[in-house]
Every structure is written in C-alpha cells, then in structure tokens.
Amino acid sequence: MILISVLGIILNNQKKDAYPVLEKVTDYLDKKGVRYYIEESIEPGSALISTDYADLKEKADYIIIIGGDGTFLHTARYFFGTGIPLLGINIGHLGFLTEIETGEIESSLEQLLAGNYTIEKRLVLEARIINDDQLVYQQQALNDFVIHRGSSSRMVPIEMYINDEIVSTYRADGLIVSTPTGSTAYSLSAGGPIINPQIRAIIVTPICPHSLFIKPMVISDQERIMIKVRGEQGISFAADGASDYKIDSNDQIFIEAAKEDLSIIKLPDRTFYSILHKKLKVGFL
Description:
The chain has helices at residues 18-32, 53-59, 69-79, 105-113, 186-189, 272-280, and strands at 6-11, 35-38, 62-67, 86-90, 100-101, 118-122, 125-131, 134-141, 144-148, 156-162, 165-172, 174-178, 201-207, 217-220, 225-229, 236-239, 242-246, 252-257, 262-266. The strands form 4 sheets. The chain has a 6-stranded antiparallel β-sheet with strand order 8-7-18-15-10-11, with no helix packed on it. A 6-stranded antiparallel β-sheet has the order 14-13-12-9-16-17, with no helix packed on it. The longest helix has 15 residues, at 18-32. The chain has 6 helices and 19 strands. By secondary structure, it is α+β, with helices and mostly antiparallel strands. The protein is 19% helix and 36% strand. It has 2 domains: 6-122 and 261-280, Probable inorganic polyphosphate/atp-NAD kinase, domain 1 (Rossmann fold, 3-Layer(aba) Sandwich), CATH 3.40.50; 125-257, Probable inorganic polyphosphate/atp-NAD kinase, domain 2 (Tumour Suppressor Smad4, Sandwich), CATH 2.60.200.30.
C-alpha cells in the first residue's frame, strides 16, 4: 500500500443524497488535513476541483466514489489500467461493489488513512469486435458483457467458440459473459453461479435459451471466447450495462481477460461471504 497524500472524489450528481455524504467526507478530510480533488461536474467554482477524469488520474492516489453500483461501474471504466485503487460509498440500492455504508463514513475513512486496509485485484474483461478484418469496437468491463435482443421479439441465434473450437450453437434471448465480480449481477438473475471474486474465471450465462441442455459455463481466465450472431437485426452488445453497440451479422465478438486488473480497496471485517449474506440474504427464504 502507499501513503495517502491526495484523494480524488467522484459522485453521482443525479442523486440528492450524494451531497450530504460528500459534505461528511470532505469535512472529515479537512479535519485530518488530507488534500483532495472533486471531479469537476459536481462542485462548480471549487478551488479544489479537478479539471476532468484525466486530471484525477494524474493527481489522486485513491478514488472515493459516492453512489451505487452503477456509479462505481461508470467510474471504473475511466481507471482501468491506471492501478489507482477505488473505494465506494453506497447511496444506491444493493451496493455490492461499494465498500462503505453511509453510517460508516468516519470510521471507514479513519481505517483508510491509518492504512488498515488491503487492495484487492479484480479481473477485468476486454471485448473486441472485428468486421471484415477491421476493429470496429473495443471496450472493457468489470462486471459483464451482454448480448441482448433489444426491442426485437425474436430469439438471438448464437454460435460460441472457446479457443477457436466451437462449443455450442443455440437460440436464446441473449448471452452474458461475466467476471466473478459480475457473477452477483445480471448473470445471477439469469441462473448463473456465484463465484468468489478472487477466483480467476470467466462465466458464460445464456439468457432464456431455447434448450433444456444449454447451461451456464465457467471457464479459465486464460481462455478466449468468440461469438457470432447470425442473420438477425437490432441485436445489441453492452459493456457493464452501457454503451450499446448494434451487432452486424458479419461481426466476430472476441472476449477475454484484460491485461490489467482493477484495484479495489477492502476494509477489515468485510469478507465476500459476509457481504453476500448481508446483501443477497443467501440462505434465507
């Protein structure tokens, strides 16, 4: 771990609950004499404002994110490959990615500044879409990539290859390729397994396949997936629920582990299983 000298703060400015939380955070940091920068869209006129995300990458040792899982995922895409650790404060619904609840702000920041934390590396996926030997799309995802039928009522015809070997051909409402971090998100809703984020694996979960024999798969993070979608129009491809790309029938979609992980701050007494029990009420009817 590194000595914290500068913190970056990013929040969801669409949530009214975010500003009282921001005030608590900055009041505590001011009291402790910790320097911080606030992302420009949330504090116009502040003397401590950063010019943009790129500026935060240069100035901040750590990033505090005030919001829900959506805010965390949106922020993460700007910090893939930087090595800057992220810490989330939850003001959303589930908050599986965020480490701190609003009633724990001062005690959690105290632990952070005292160095009482660990940095956990999370697998990130990278997708590239090739059409006629040209790269037409490239994106990374912390949770998942999703192929979905959009507004169409027709099922999606899917061909899936792993390491250039065909594995399955079927029709479904879509397909989710997720990390262990994303195994508690959309993949879980579609019947996929829950996987500890420290396991290096990729989960492939069909969405409502038209077959009793097509089931979720867990493969090594050393393997590469290639997907073809044939003969349908209007099928979409999304990274972490955002940036929809309309798939062409000649597209080849390649998904594999990114070269660099994402760093997330973990505070004491917050294990994966305790969070699982608290957030998803695992084991309760």
